[in-house]
Design a protein that fits this description.
This protein is of the alpha/beta class and 300 residues long. It is built from nine helices and twelve strands. The strands form three sheets. It has a six-stranded parallel beta sheet with strand order 2-1-4-6-7-10, sandwiched between helices. Strands 9-8-12-11 form a four-stranded antiparallel beta sheet, with no helix packed on it. Strands 3-5 form a two-stranded parallel ribbon.
Amino acid sequence: MCNRTGSALLEALEGRRLLSGGAAAAGTAAGRLRSDAAAARDAPVVRSTVQAAAKKRASAADSAPLRYVVGFYGLGGPSFGNSWLAQTVSDVGANEGATTRIYQQDQGQQAVADYFAFVDANGDHVLSPDEINSVTVDVIGYSFGGVHAAEFTRALTATGRHGLYGYLLADTMPVHTLLTIDPVNTTNQKHTDGPMRNVAYFYNYYQSNPGSSTVTLKPRGKAKSSTSFTFDGTNNPVGGPLPSTARHAAQVLVDNGGPLSDVTVTQAYSHFAYGTLRGADVNHMTMPWFLYQTVLQDFS
């Protein structure tokens, strides 16, 4: 949906990367598969061995953990920020071949119950260690949805004898990655004490601008002049860092001198135009759009 982010963005993030892509490993694996196929053609006497190895790999693939991605919208229903949150969650899920679910920011209990039901393969409402380890979950949330995303991960530690939402957990349920975009954790209505040790990787991006944010727009096609759109306001929500005991955490201020403040992103804004925005000029509403490619990189 978006064109490639500039190299400056990746360079700015280089110093705090926690995850790395697997393209080289995939290429090596593909090479091994090609070598096996050649061996099967050229040496019929070892074909049964090659076929057995292929079956073993297929069996390993069948037993690999299922992938599950959970997303939480921010407050307010349809909006520019929420539409890009949905696009981001959808694309992360598609890249992982995952089952994807997106919830409103007040549907945290439903999200947890749905995940428990997904993990509960035999339907006995007891989540065994084997069932728990059969699924890898990632969680993404924006604004108040970021608060609920963190609370979702905390719910997966409810191993008490009374269980949670009708399910008993035999062990704490791990979360591979929790990523929050400008979580608003400053009200009495929504609050989290942040992710716990069951979260392997925690990324939080936040900003400090309660005012407006202007995206420069270049309509698709030639000989069309640039324009702009301003997401206005004088009292927009402002996110911030979250408490965390996650095993690995990176909390990044995007504007106001943060590592992304001098980064300029140019990418698809709509079906009709490309947009350009500098990190120093984001606000709450433009954060999911500005961070779209960054988030995809974090899950690569």
